[in-house]
Amino acid sequence: MIEVKNITKSFDGRVVLHDINTVFEDGKTNLIIGRSGSGKTVLIKNIIGLMKPDKGEILYDGRNLLTMNKHELNMLRREMGMLFQGSALFDSMTVLENVMFPLDMFSNDSAKERQKRAQFCLDRVNLSEAGHLFPSEISGGMMKRAAIARAIALNPKYLFCDEPNSGLDPKTSLIIDDLIHDITVEYKMTTIINTHDMNSVMNIGENIIFIKEGVKEWQGTKEQVITSSNKALNDFIFASDLFRKVKEIEMQHEEG
Ligand SMILES: Nc1ncnc2c1ncn2[C@@H]1O[C@H](COP(=O)(O)OP(=O)(O)OP(=O)(O)O)[C@@H](O)[C@H]1O
Ligand SMILES: [Mg+2]
């Protein structure tokens, strides 16, 4: 569980996050949604400690990120898996070497054990046969899966994904969403995903935080998105054609 308390962040006097309060639960895919520029990436960067908020607290299962010393912070970092925009695989390494990289950096296991673990993670994301290939030799969806395998190599408690579906077609996006959701449940991770993909919202939106201009405007589940009367949320989701249709059907149901 990650608790975010009263997080405020400004750049040059401009408030980008205003007094954000929320709880991200474990074993769930927690989504941060909102328009481009609403503050999703800044929020995730504050949560993982890449940026320091002006005010507030961030608690990782009760441990306060902002008062940790270097050693505690390093220990916490090992419990985090990250999947950022693009897959950011190393081009000069094979897929297997990419997945082994965090293990080589942080694990004390033997080379054989590390390779076994990396192969296990590749198997988990259905890339059993791709270990010997280079990133340039595989598709975008495969790269994303390889990046997921690398992100879970150290068995993280917390998984952070910033726009995991960027650049993928809708069908591949669904596969990636399902994979992230499945491993979240399987390993009881606290997973936080930034997205403006409405398909993801409806597919894996178990706990959704909607941010508008740096303010938490709404929080709920995918089922509650459909029936919400929050104007800002509706404006946001009505921008999607699919959603307009779903909402219209829902409203006809309510009237009839
Ligand atoms: N390092 C920075 N210095 C100054 N301003 C910044 C910095 N990082 C982000 N911002 C500003 O903060 C605001 C929120 O940006 P952020 O990247 O969090 O948006 P986002 O919701 O992730 O958008 P997108 O969906 O396009 O990724 C923007 O106005 C951005 O210009
Ligand atoms: Mg962003």
Automatic annotation (TrEMBL):
- SMART domains linked to this entry: AAA
Say if the entry is tagged with keyword Nucleotide-binding.
yes
Which Gene Ontology terms cover its molecular function? ATP binding; ATP hydrolysis activity
Classification via InterPro entries: AAA+_ATPase, ABC_transporter-like_ATP-bd, ABC_transporter-like_CS, P-loop_NTPase
Could you tell me which Pfam families the record lists for this protein?
ABC_tran
Q: Which residues form a coiled coil?
A: none
> What is the protein name given in its UniProt record?
Phospholipid/cholesterol/gamma-HCH transport system ATP-binding protein
Query: Source species, please?
Result: Parabacteroides chinchillae
